[in-house]
């Protein structure tokens, strides 16, 4: 590296996996030097994870580090609902030998990464008629359900974190009312995340099995009994179609997609997202065929007098699973440029 070059560290910390990246910055442009995808549950916290990552190669002199974490961030600390970590940015910096660590909500990191995506890294569900300077919104189902707003302020979209995934689940149909009653018996309070998330998909599967006595596929039942990730097993069987022989998986996916669309439409209204609604997280790219052919857009737009309004809103799926990592790197670069070397 030349005298004016430096390095930044960034990460997208999920409830299941974490993407870490070390970037070298030359002439104001970050270049990925090394990356790793690690299982979050294998570490006692973010500090030990970073120590492992940095010990695996030459970290060089790192000026700034920014990490998107799956939970609310208050005074650079976060308690992650779907990961048993208490994260303190100052403590993490000490543990990993970094000058400073900035924590942001993971949807803020993803939102910052949207502007860095190529056209081929987005899939369009609804083209709409966007307002060039309209607000945007972001919804991401994975281990949990993340939400973020992107109001247009001045000449840029400013990410605003949200914990909207923990709002009450609002059933729309008799089927969903039955689902809510089923989940209320198990959890007491039923949040949207209990339905629209990876664990939520498994909840839908169990509801159809227990309340409707829909038989399980032997292959799926065996995979679940062996401890395979339920959302992956059910999702793959559902996307494979009737040839997979799993009616209950397909029915669960229909319920999931319908609820996902309804929540997306609600968020678009809350955020007046005339500039577009983006779907992030790990699930949407994997079930893209069902998002395109299923009830997603129907429930997205089924808002009474606001049907025409929602028909104008573009809906796009983020296909690049490193969007949040790139967004965190962008924030780290901005921070480095404001921080004396």
Give a structural overview:
This protein has two domains: 6-107 and 322-338, ATPase, nucleotide binding domain (Nucleotidyltransferase, domain 5); 165-318, Hexokinase, domain 1 (3-Layer(aba) Sandwich). The chain contains 13 helices and 16 strands. It has helices spanning 46-55, 89-96, 106-114, 174-187, 198-212, 218-225, 230-240, 247-270, 283-286, 288-293, 296-301, 307-311, 323-338, and strands at 6-13, 17-26, 29-39, 62-69, 73-74, 77-79, 86-88, 102-105, 122-126, 136-141, 145-150, 152-153, 156-157, 160-162, 276-280, 315-318. The radius of gyration is 21 Å and the shape is globular. It starts with 5 loop residues before the first strand and ends with a helix.
Keyword list:
16 strands; 341 residues; 13 helices; Nucleotidyltransferase, domain 5; alpha/beta; Hexokinase, domain 1; 40% helix; 2 domains; six-stranded mixed beta sheet; five-stranded mixed beta sheet
Short description:
The protein is α/β, with parallel strands linked by helices and about 350 residues long.
């Amino acid at each position: 590296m030349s005298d004016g070059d430096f390095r930044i560290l960034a990460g997208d910390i999920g409830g299941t996996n974490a993407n870490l990246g070390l970037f070298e910055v030359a002439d104001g442009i970050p270049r990925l030097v090394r990356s790793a995808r690690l299982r979050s549950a294998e570490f006692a916290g973010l500090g030990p994870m970073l120590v492992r990552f940095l010990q695996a190669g030459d970290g060089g002199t790192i000026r700034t580090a920014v990490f998107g974490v799956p939970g609310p961030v208050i005074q650079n600390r976060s308690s992650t609902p779907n990961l048993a970590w208490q994260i303190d940015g100052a403590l993490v910096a000490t543990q990993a030998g970094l000058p400073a660590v900035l924590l942001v909500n993971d949807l803020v990191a993803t939102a910052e990464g949207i502007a860095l995506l190529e056209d081929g890294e987005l899939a369009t569900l609804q083209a709409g008629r966007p307002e060039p300077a309209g607000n945007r919104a972001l919804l991401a189902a994975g281990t949990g359900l993340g939400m973020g707003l992107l109001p247009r302020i001045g000449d840029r979209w400013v990410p605003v974190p949200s914990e909207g995934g923990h709002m009450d689940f609002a059933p729309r149909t008799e089927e969903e009312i039955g689902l809510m009653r089923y989940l209320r018996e198990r959890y007491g309070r039923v949040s949207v995340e209990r339905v629209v998330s990876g664990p939520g998909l498994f909840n839908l599967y169990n509801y159809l099995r227990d309340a409707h006595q829909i038989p399980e596929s032997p292959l799926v039942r065996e995979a679940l009994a062996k401890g395979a990730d339920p959302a992956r097993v059910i999702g793959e069987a559902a996307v494979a179609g009737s040839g997979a022989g799993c009616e209950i998986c397909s029915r669960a996916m229909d319920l999931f997609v319908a609820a996902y669309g309804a929540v997306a439409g609600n968020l678009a209204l809350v955020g007046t997202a005339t500039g577009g609604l983006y779907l992030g997280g790990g699930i949407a790219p994997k079930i893209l065929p069902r998002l395109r052919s299923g009830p997603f857009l129907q429930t997205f737009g089924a808002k009474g007098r606001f049907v025409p309004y929602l028909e104008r809103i573009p809906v796009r799926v983020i296909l690049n699973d490193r969007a949040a990592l790139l967004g965190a790197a962008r924030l780290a670069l901005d921070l480095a440029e404001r921080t004396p070397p």
